[in-house]
Design a protein that fits this description.
Layout (H helix, E strand, L loop, with lengths): L1 H13 L9 E12 L9 E17 L4 E6 L8 E4 L13 H12 L8 E7 L9 H16 L6 H16 L6 H8 L4 E6 L5 E5 L5 E7 L11 H17 L12 H7 L8 H24 L2 H17 L6 H11 L4 E7 L6 E7 L3 H16 L4 E5 L6 E5 L1
Parallel strand pairs: 3-5
Antiparallel strand pairs: 1-2, 1-12, 2-5, 2-6, 3-4, 6-7, 8-10, 8-11, 9-10
Helix pairs in contact: 2-3, 2-4, 3-4, 3-5, 4-5, 6-8, 8-9, 10-11
Length: about 400
């Protein structure tokens, strides 16, 4: 509550509002993908959960068509201003292009947004760390628009428009997992999501004597500049090769390991073969992971996390020195149930399940080994599965 009160106070000061001004406060979480990496765009199932930290917004509606946006995370950029008549991507508007893009996407989809608003954002998700700070601000803006303008739209459609913003306005070819898990998160649950059909189900994710530890490599990585699009194109070309040879699939993850082994000779690019192997085996690991949670078999769940990291390192080649150093140090620690990279890779974060009585030692030892190997300081976050994006109230 103290965090929200401070944000409300800072908002009124920043935008020169009267103390009596009523404001609306909103929240959207970050997300961590527990297992199922780089398969959302290959028709595979993923297994994320929303976290109990994320992005907050304090908002008041305006009478004119001006938007004024400020962020506690980028104070040096001050207030970024634009109008309803000029919703174009502008590099100098930096982070504000994300909420601006959402406004444009909603307008283009026929929703009536007839004025601007003043907003102060604050996120306690590490920027560029692979926990989806961009998707969090997109879904958060969607929830703000729905509330301020009384829009008739459900969460799944808001999720789709948020993803569309990232794809078309920002120009990053992301799948839908990030926005979906941020919008549809549920406390103490993980989400099994088929990114092909958007069918989903919840699995109880109650770690009685363990916690989710997220470790940030603190190696900055911009998703747009990473080799994400390259990997994705490689998979799309392989899918085309298979279909051209009469293999009846709509997506790579329609295959199981046996089918992949029997058909991989149709894939023209040698480099693409291990990429496809990763997609197929990772999807199988996700399905096993769901069963493990339902059976309460957390140890096998942890082993599947480890196998996932090995596949991302050797077959998909998206880990790198920093992520590998963090994960390998985690594997050596007592109390580690499982550990893997999470997110797009090439920097960003790892996710580990660690027994509660070992967390302090885990953070100390993994941090020390990581610094010795890379020269970088890792940052650790203890997270729990939290709720999806929502309005917190009027203040």
């Amino acid at each position: 509550m103290e965090l929200i009160n401070n944000l409300v106070k800072n908002f009124k000061k920043e935008f020169k509002k009267d103390d009596k001004t009523s404001v609306e406060v909103f929240f959207a979480p970050g997300r961590v993908n527990l297992i199922g990496e780089h398969i959302d765009y290959n028709g595979g199932k993923v297994f994320p959960c929303a976290l109990d930290f994320g992005t907050y917004a304090v908002v008041t509606k305006r009478e004119d068509n001006i938007f004024r946006m400020s962020s506690e995370n980028f104070k040096d950029l001050g207030i970024i201003e634009f109008s309803l008549d000029s919703l174009i991507y502008d590099k100098k508007d930096d982070w504000a292009n994300y909420p601006k893009g959402v406004v444009k996407t909603f307008l283009d989809s026929g929703f009536n947004i007839n004025s601007g608003f003043d907003v102060l954002f604050f996120g306690n998700i590490p920027n560029g760390a692979g926990l989806s700070s961009s998707a969090s601000i997109e879904v958060l803006t969607s929830v703000i628009l729905k509330s301020l303008f009384n829009l008739d739209i459900n969460m799944v459609d808001m999720v789709k428009l948020s993803q569309k913003t990232e794809n078309e306005f920002i120009g990053v070819n992301c799948g839908i997992m990030d926005q979906f898990s941020i919008g549809m998160g549920k406390k103490d649950h993980a989400i099994l999501l088929d990114c092909n059909t958007l069918e989903y189900s919840y699995a109880p994710f109650i770690l009685n004597n363990a916690s989710i530890i997220i470790a940030n490599t603190n190696k900055r990585r911009g998703l747009g500049e990473s080799k994400y699009n390259e990997r994705r194109a490689s998979c799309e070309n392989a899918l085309k090769d298979l279909k051209d040879n009469g293999i009846n699939i709509n997506a790579l993850c329609d295959m199981d390991s046996e089918k992949f082994e029997n058909t991989k000779h149709f894939i023209k690019s040698e480099e693409a073969i291990p990429r496809v192997r990763h997609a197929v085996t990772e999807n199988e690991r996700v399905l096993k992971a769901m069963k493990c949670l339902k059976d309460g078999d957390i140890l096998t769940f942890g082993k599947l996390m480890n196998d996932s990291h090995k596949s991302l390192k050797d077959d998909y080649e998206v880990t790198g020195l920093e992520l590998d150093s963090l994960v390998e140090a985690a594997w050596e620690e007592e109390g580690t149930i499982g550990s893997r990279m999470t997110g797009a890779g090439f920097g960003g974060c790892t996710v580990s399940l660690v027994k509660n009585d070992c967390i302090e030692k885990f953070i100390e030892n993994v941090g020390k080994k990581y610094k010795e190997k890379t020269g970088l300081e890792a940052t650790f976050y203890i997270g729990n599965p939290g709720d999806g994006a929502k309005k917190l109230g009027d203040f």
